[in-house]
Predict the 3D structure of the following.
Amino acid sequence: MIDNDIVYREITAADSAAVIDLANQVHGDNYLNSESLAALLEGGTVGNKKLNFLAEKQGKVVGVRLTLAPGNWSIDQACTPEEWPVEPEHICYFKCAAVAESARGLGIGKQLLQKSINAAADLGCRAGLAHIWLQSPANSAYEYFSRCGGVLVNRHPDRWLQASLEDGYYCPVCDGNCRCDAGEMILMFDT
C-alpha cells in the first residue's frame, strides 16, 4: 500500500532531533546521538550529492535512511571484503534504516533505500553493504533487506557489544548489553 501523503527528501541538520528520536525508538537508546548523526550526515555527503533521506507524513518524520559514501566508512573486523563482488571504492554503506511503527507496511523503507541507491549510483557505486540486525523482532530487518535484493555474505556475532559497553547503546532485544549477530549483506545495484 502506497501512501501519497508521504514526502521524501534529503536529511538536513535541522532534522537531527527527529531523526535521532526515530532511530533510537527503533534500534534502542543511544543508537544515535547528535555527534554520531552529524558524522553520518557528513559521511553521506560528497560535494553536493547527499545519500541520507527521510520520509515525512503531515510534517512528522516517519522514516529514515542513513548511508555512507565509499571511502567514508571503515572496513573493520565485521567485514569480509574478499567475498564482495565489487571493490570497496564502488560500495556505499547502509548504516541505518528506521520506519515508525505506525507507518510500516507503506513501502517507506523501500522508497528510502531506492533514493539512497540512486544517489550512490550517481557517485559510481555498484553495490551497498549493510550489517543487518539478525535478532530484530521477527527477523524483519533480514527479511526486508533480502526482499530488496540483499545477499548474506557472512555472520558476525556480538557486532554491537562494544557500542553497548563503551558508548551506552541499549539493545531493546538483549535488554542491555547487545549480543546480537549482524548479517553482513551486500546489495548489487541494477543501474
Q: What stands out?
A: The chain has a mean pLDDT of 94. Helices lie at 16-27, 34-43, 108-122, 140-147, 161-167. The longest strand covers residues 60-68. The chain has one domain: 6-188.
